[in-house]
Design goal:
The chain is mainly alpha-helical and 127 residues long. 80% of the residues lie in helices and 0% in strands.
Length: 127
């Protein structure tokens, strides 16, 4: 493992997904999934998200489209929260969700809006 890349990935992962989520994943590592968690942190977060060629905000919007297309609701919700953490406005998020509906199909759009509404309501309730 490249320790510097892992540490960079851990920092970015925490910024985007939040400390609580990352700590839950790191603290619940077992011998079975330890290498996988290290891979995700090092390669996905350190290597890909750590590449400054794209801003985190742009990466978040791209992820939402891909996760909706793949019908990965749990990951979509996680990355929708991350997109907010990365500075995406409600208008930008709404526009991306509309584009998801057109390119991925209305059922994907309906699900994306349903998840987004739940997240936004949750955030609003905490404020």
């Amino acid at each position: 493992m490249d320790k510097a890349l892992y540490d960079k990935g851990l920092s970015i992962r925490t910024q985007v997904l939040g400390e609580d989520y990352v700590n839950r994943n790191i603290n619940n590592v077992t011998d079975f999934n330890r290498h996988f968690q290290e891979m995700v942190t090092e390669y996905a977060w350190g290597g890909v998200w750590g590449d400054d060629a794209l801003e985190k905000k742009t990466r978040s919007l791209i992820n939402l489209g891909m996760l909706a297309a793949l019908n990965r609701a749990q990951e979509f919700e996680l990355h929708f929260r991350g997109a907010i953490n990365n500075g995406c406005s409600k208008e930008e998020l709404r526009t991306v969700l509309e584009q998801i509906a057109i390119y991925c199909g209305m059922p994907a759009g309906v699900e994306a809006f349903r998840i987004a509404r739940r997240v936004l309501d949750d955030i609003e309730a905490k404020d």
